[in-house]
Specification:
Layout: E1 3-7, E2 10-12, E3 18-25, E4 34-39, E5 46-51, E6 58-60, E7 68-73, E8 78-83, E9 92-99, E10 116-117, E11 123-127
Parallel strand pairs: 2-11
Antiparallel strand pairs: 1-3, 3-8, 4-5, 4-9, 5-6, 7-8, 9-10, 9-11
Length: about 130
């Protein structure tokens, strides 16, 4: 069974930090571009970040640029999203997904939902005092 599993979410105070992990099972993600998305209640799912298969391309949404950092460890079959200086507006369910090979191994930017497949189940981030 091929799947992605997100972890690392939880409740954090404004200004705090969290690191999300996206772990692939049943396949190797080292040849895929991987995207992070988030969806807040009543809002559309939006692209947050993307990293290419070889770190040759990278993307951050304006709303998180300078605060979030995406990275990957292919030996662990994992992509990370380090989130710092968290704000209440970062509250959402966060998802990772593989970019379809049709669109290449570099990030297709800006990310669009149609470029991705093999979504994880999501992990909840709540930023509140």
């Amino acid at each position: 069974q091929e799947q992605l599993v997100e972890s690392g979410g939880g409740l954090v105070q404004p200004g705090g930090s969290l690191r999300l992990s996206c772990v692939a099972s049943g396949f190797s993600l080292d040849t895929y571009a991987i995207g992070w998305f988030r969806q807040a209640p009543g809002k559309e799912r939006e692209g947050v970040s993307c990293i290419g298969s070889s770190d040759g391309s990278m993307y951050y949404a304006d709303s998180v640029k300078g605060r979030f950092t995406i990275s990957r460890d292919n030996a662990k079959n994992t992509v990370y999203l380090q989130m710092m200086s968290l704000k209440p507006e970062d509250t959402a369910v966060y998802y990772c997904a593989t970019q379809l090979r049709l669109y290449g191994s570099n990030c297709a930017v800006p990310p669009h939902l149609i470029y991705y497949h093999s979504w994880g189940q999501g992990t909840q981030i709540t930023v509140s005092s």
